[in-house]
């Protein structure tokens, strides 16, 4: 099949495929869970897995079922994603509304077309339950606003993100993210993840360009 759905991953058996779907900020309703389960039953998916990025992986799909399964799932397949903690709507430790901020970021940047994929984490406090320090872009809530982090990675060349700015209110945080992503898009190399981009440029150079 030449027109595989974006993000399709060939499995070890060289015959079946995995797809990953993205509930916004990892939040699901009972109806959406039931819809995912219905797709898994209908297409005899042998494994459903919750990923570290708060997504669902459907593993072992047959090639002939890929497009139909993707069209019947209640969430978008592949692409950038934003994971988030429950934030101050629910958690007594949180300082900021992580779910609301994650929703704004998801809506604004979901179609961002940059050098490589983007993983974002929005944590309502320094406990960092959304793994903000090891994501391409991270936000961490403080009592004064948001700390903006760039250049994290949890892969084989793991990297703790650098702090780009501190204690920004919501609108300034989103504005800085937009400027950073455009800077990355303009200056990053094809398939160069944010961690490698920040290493190459240096955080001081990036701050000078954006702040």
From TrEMBL:
The keyword Iron-sulfur applies. One of its GO terms (molecular function) is 4 iron, 4 sulfur cluster binding. Its EC number is 1.7.1.4. The lineage of its organism: Bacteria, Pseudomonadati, Thermodesulfobacteriota, Desulfovibrionia, Desulfovibrionales. Gene3D superfamilies: Sulfite Reductase Hemoprotein, domain 1 (3.30.413.10), Sulfite Reductase Hemoprotein,Domain 2 (3.90.480.10). Keywords: 4Fe-4S, Heme, Iron, Iron-sulfur, Metal-binding, Oxidoreductase. The keyword Mitochondrion does not apply. It comes from Oleidesulfovibrio alaskensis (strain ATCC BAA-1058 / DSM 17464 / G20). Residues 82-210 form the Nitrite/sulphite reductase 4Fe-4S domain. Residues 10-70 form the Nitrite/Sulfite reductase ferredoxin-like domain. PANTHER family: NITRITE REDUCTASE (NADH) LARGE SUBUNIT (PTHR43809:SF1). PROSITE patterns: NIR_SIR. This is Nitrite reductase (NAD(P)H). SUPFAM superfamilies: Nitrite and sulphite reductase 4Fe-4S domain-like, Nitrite/Sulfite reductase N-terminal domain-like.
């Amino acid at each position: 099949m030449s027109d595989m759905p974006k993000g399709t991953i060939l499995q070890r058996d060289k015959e079946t495929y995995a797809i990953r779907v993205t509930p916004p900020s990892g939040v699901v309703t009972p109806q959406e869970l039931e819809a995912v389960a219905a797709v898994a039953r209908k297409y005899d998916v042998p494994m459903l897995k919750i990923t570290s990025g708060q997504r669902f992986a459907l593993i072992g799909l047959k090639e002939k079922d890929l497009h139909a399964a993707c069209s019947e799932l209640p969430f978008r397949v592949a692409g950038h994603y934003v994971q988030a903690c429950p934030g101050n709507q629910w958690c007594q430790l949180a300082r900021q509304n992580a779910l609301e901020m994650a929703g704004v970021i998801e809506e604004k940047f979901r179609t961002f077309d940059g050098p490589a994929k983007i993983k974002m984490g929005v944590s309502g406090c320094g406990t960092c339950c959304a793994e903000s320090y090891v994501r391409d872009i991270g936000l961490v809530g403080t009592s004064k606003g948001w700390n903006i982090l760039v250049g994290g990675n949890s892969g084989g060349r793991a990297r703790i993100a650098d702090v780009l700015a501190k204690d920004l209110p919501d609108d300034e945080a989103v504005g800085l993210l937009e400027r950073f992503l455009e800077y990355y898009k303009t200056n990053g190399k094809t398939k160069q993840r944010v961690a490698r981009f920040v290493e190459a440029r240096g955080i001081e150079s990036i701050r000078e360009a954006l702040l």
